[in-house]
Amino acid sequence: MRVSTAALAVASFVVASAGLVGASNFWDAKPYTEWSPKEMETILTDSPWVRKLSVVVQSPPRATDDGGGGGGGRGGGGDVGGRGFPVPAPQLKLTLTWRSALPVREALSRSGDTVAPGGQSMLDPPQHYLLTLSGVPARYQRLVPSAATTSFLKRGTKPPIALLQGGIQQDSGGLLTLVFAFPRTDPIVLDDKEVEFVTAIGTLEIKHKFKLRDLLVNGELEL
Q1: Structural domain of residue 121, as residue ranges?
Q2: Pairing of the two strands 91-97 and 50-56
Q3: What is the rounded radius of gyration, in angstroms, for the C-alpha atoms of the chain?
Q4: 67 lies in some domain
Q5: Within a domain: 38
Q6: Are 89 and 107 in contact (CB under 8 A)?
Q7: Which of 47, 79, 109, 175 has the smallest C-beta neighbourhood within 10 Å, fewest atoms?
Q8: Mean pLDDT by 10-residue block, N- to C-terminus, for the chain (223 residues)?
Q9: Contacts of 222 (CB under 8 A, 6+ apart)
């Protein structure tokens, strides 16, 4: 049986279209009121608006165990403690969330199959760009005020957006969630291509770049 070129072209288009539909994100494909519990969890833990960060804890240099004297190699009873071998720097596991993004607000507004009490207010257009940094140990709390002058959203050659205000929340486990609010007076646009969140808490330096093309909902940038 012979199949015309036109028929093959139509069939190819249908297959390609089906592939595109299958590859669409669920936050584009259906309203948030139809998201499953697993999909809501995905938005809040593993979506383009949420990033898991490993931040190296910078430690001050230590003096050598022998105090720099006594040149003998004996009498130490071995290399207890790993002296002479590199020790990996400790790391903090933090979560950075673009809290003001519509999909994040929609997921937070849900409670089971309904809108949570007070959840409707979460859907109001936010006045600021809000980001949260969770998992910060409580021992850093006294250093958090230093972030007031070290927190920015950077976009290529444009002037960085400085922090407007911040806040601290503490969970039952004693870990801190830091809240960063940035003004929208000079909005971030898709043509900026990427935006970098930058802050410092004492010696902790935290940076992460978001590619703006990944933060779209039905073709609209959501931050």
Answers
A1: 25-58+88-218
A2: antiparallel
A3: 25
A4: no
A5: yes
A6: no
A7: 79
A8: 45 38 77 92 95 81 46 42 64 92 91 58 86 92 89 94 92 88 96 95 91 95 96
A9: 49, 101, 102, 103, 215, 216
Is 71 a member of any domain? no
Kindly report the pTM of this predicted structure: 0.75
Contact of 213 with 222, CB cutoff 8 Å:
no
Residue 73 lies in a domain: no
Residue 190's Cβ-side half-sphere holds a number of Cα atoms within 13 Å equal to 9
Candidates 222, 221, 147; CA nearest to 180 is 147
Q: State the Cα–Cα distance between residues 79 and 210, nearest whole angstrom.
A: 44
Question: How far apart, in whole angstroms, are the C-alpha atoms of residue 104 and residue 115?
Answer: 14
| pLDDT computed for residue 22 by the predictor | 40
What's the pLDDT at 52? 94
At 156, list the tokens. Answer: 């290529």
Query: How many other C-beta atoms are found inside a 10 Å radius of the C-beta of residue 176?
Result: 19
